[in-house]
Specification:
588 residues, alpha/beta, four-stranded mixed sheet, hydrolase, Sigma_54_int, coiled coil, AAA+_ATPase
């Protein structure tokens, strides 16, 4: 295989260049890349549907990278003196928000200092008058001195709880600001601006790309903090408790939401409203709190939505919300595999180099190790002669192989490290399984018994299918044991009955009771066992004998055609791994 890698002049992934730009690092999604380029230019919404780990989030970041940058205004929340529960929203030019806040803080600090001086003068004068009186009256004692100190402290505490600074000098709340420069970073070191820094929920991304995957509704649409001190002059003004949502932070940028089907209909409609109006007010979402009475004026949220999910996601989307993709954007089906060609094998090698560069803890792969990763990509692919695009899963083998090599003090990952990673990196389902020793695969099975390999990658698990056919007084009955009586299993048993009746009408298969028991992996396999069910039934009625080391992979249609299941390479490799071979000739 190594000669097909187009790596003749390269000994390891260390010499493979990693392309610049996120869009050029997406593997095997040519159609999606083309649509993302078009959508980013026109700022259209995009819905990406596909299996996990196929590059949906990378395409979302690439969208943000390709999008024309627009200046995003800073957003200030001011108190509304006419209606305190409806704070005012002021937009200013990008970068002017912090200087405004800084100036307000300077004036506020100056006025606060003056107020404190004014507050202290009466208490000091009262205390001095009392002290002078006691001295001249000849009544000065230590208790008089202590009482004077107590009076000063009491008056100081009383005055300190009173906020009499001019309301016009209340500092506005800067909730959206442009990226910080060095001067802004110095300002944010001040304790007063720490809370503002916490409000910028960018999750580590730039302001152009906001990932709102899995966030609760307050983080998505904005919220108002609960104030436990609402009375007595200790409360925080409503405008200071306003927190922006991801939709506001994504203004003039990209909002990315994976597992979009997880949003409730109510949240989808709110998101739809924000997309239509390009403005959305922030309201308190704490039930039972006075913050739920607070609602700001509408705040800008002009974003492009890149949403992602699996194929079932469409069922959970509100029709009106989905129209924002069908009518104002694109729906894209992600590829789960790509043709097994030298060029695409080179892309897998590029993927390994990208992973090493991205994760600084990984070490580079030798050419032979890359070839072994490509073998895994072939085995994990859902179709024959293709390479998998479940790159997150493939990346797991890359990281495991690197860990194994580093643990052995190696400079590069070798072929043996990849093989070992493939053996040990098994899903939890494959770690508690029925295993059969190869010497137990000699001879013939009992009637109605056949072994089935797992559909999970790198699995030594085995499934056992057992069938018994009984006379049932001219009544057809199907009994399924060990797994749900689902539509797939029932249909494959009925198809097997139909084919047997067509080939062997004298057996009267529709007048029998058929009992099929599933053990081990056979309980969990979702498809590709219809052929094994057919063989198990005709074995049970004495038409054939099945060897212990024989298996069958595939399904049947009503005409007797064999249908190749998904992940055939995984099943075939697992069969070989446990000593099973597919029956070469099946009479149907």
């Amino acid at each position: 295989m190594s000669e097909d890698l187009m790596l003749d002049k390269i000994n390891s992934t260390e010499n493979i260049p990693v392309p610049k730009g996120i869009i050029n690092q997406v593997i095997g999604q040519d159609k999606a890349i083309e649509i993302i380029k078009i959508a980013a230019k026109e700022r259209r919404n995009v819905l990406l549907l596909g299996n996990p780990g196929t590059g949906k989030s990378m395409l979302g970041k690439a969208y943000a990278e390709l999008m024309d940058k627009e200046p995003r205004p800073d957003i200030l929340i001011y108190p509304n003196h006419d209606d305190p529960n409806s704070p005012e929203v002021i937009e200013v030019e990008a970068g002017l928000g912090l200087p405004i806040v800084k100036e307000f803080k300077r004036i506020y600090a100056k006025e606060s200092y003056k107020q404190k001086i004014k507050q202290r003068v009466p208490s000091i004068l009262i205390a001095l008058i009392y002290l002078i009186y006691t001295i001249f009256a000849g009544r000065f004692e230590i208790t008089s001195f202590l009482f004077t100190v107590l009076v000063i402290i009491s008056l100081e505490m009383i005055f300190s709880t009173q906020k009499k600074v001019d309301k016009r000098l209340i500092v506005p709340n800067l909730i959206i600001k442009e990226e910080e420069n060095e001067e802004e970073e110095e300002i944010e070191e001040e304790e007063e601006l720490e809370e503002e820094k916490d409000n910028h929920l960018t999750n580590g991304f730039s302001s152009r790309f906001i990932d709102a995957t899995g966030v609760e509704v307050g983080r998505l649409l904005g919220d108002v903090k609960h104030d436990p001190y609402e009375t007595g002059g200790l409360g925080t003004p409503p405008h200071e408790r306003v927190m922006p949502g991801a939709i506001h932070l994504a203004n003039k940028g990209v909002l990315f939401i994976d597992e979009i089907g997880g949003l409730s209909y109510e949240e989808q409609i709110s998101l739809l409203t924000a997309m239509q109006e390009r403005r959305f007010p922030i309201t308190g979402r704490s039930t039972g709190s006075s913050s739920s009475l607070i609602q700001t004026q509408p705040i800008p949220c002009d974003f492009a939505l890149v949403a992602a999910g699996n194929y079932e996601t469409i069922e959970f989307l509100h029709p009106a919300f989905r129209s924002r993709f069908l009518g104002y954007g694109y729906e894209v089906k992600m590829n789960d595999s790509m043709p097994d060609t030298p060029e695409n094998r080179q892309k897998i090698a590029q993927f390994i180099a990208q992973e090493v560069k991205k994760d600084k803890k990984l070490i580079h792969f030798k050419k032979e190790a890359v070839a072994e990763i490509i073998k895994i990509a072939q085995e994990l692919s859902p179709k024959k002669d293709t390479l998998t695009l479940s790159l997150r899963k493939l990346g797991g083998y890359v990281r495991a192989a690197s860990d194994i090599a580093k643990n052995s003090k190696k400079q590069f990952v070798e072929k043996s490290d990849v093989k070992k990673a493939f053996e040990i990196l098994q899903p939890i389902e494959a770690q508690d399984i029925i295993k059969i020793e190869k010497q137990a695969l000699e001879g013939y099975q009992k009637e109605g018994v056949i072994y089935i390999p797992s559909e999970k990658e790198a699995s030594n698990a085995i499934g056992i299918l057992k069938t018994v056919v009984l006379d049932n007084n001219q009544v057809n009955e199907i009994v399924i044991l060990g797994r749900e009586k689902d539509e797939y299993t029932l249909s494959q048993i009925k198809i097997a009955q139909t084919i047997i009746h067509k080939l062997y009408p004298e057996k009267g298969i529709f007048n029998k009771q058929i009992i099929v028991e599933f053990e081990g992996e056979a309980k969990r396999i979702k498809e590709g066992i219809g052929l094994a069910i057919y063989l198990s039934i005709i074995s049970a009625i004495g038409l054939i004998k099945i060897k212990k080391n024989e298996t069958a992979i595939g399904d049947l249609d009503i005409l007797g055609n064999i249908i190749t299941p998904s992940y055939p390479s995984v099943r075939t490799a697992n069969a070989k791994r446990i000593g099973l071979k597919e029956i070469e000739k099946i009479e149907i």
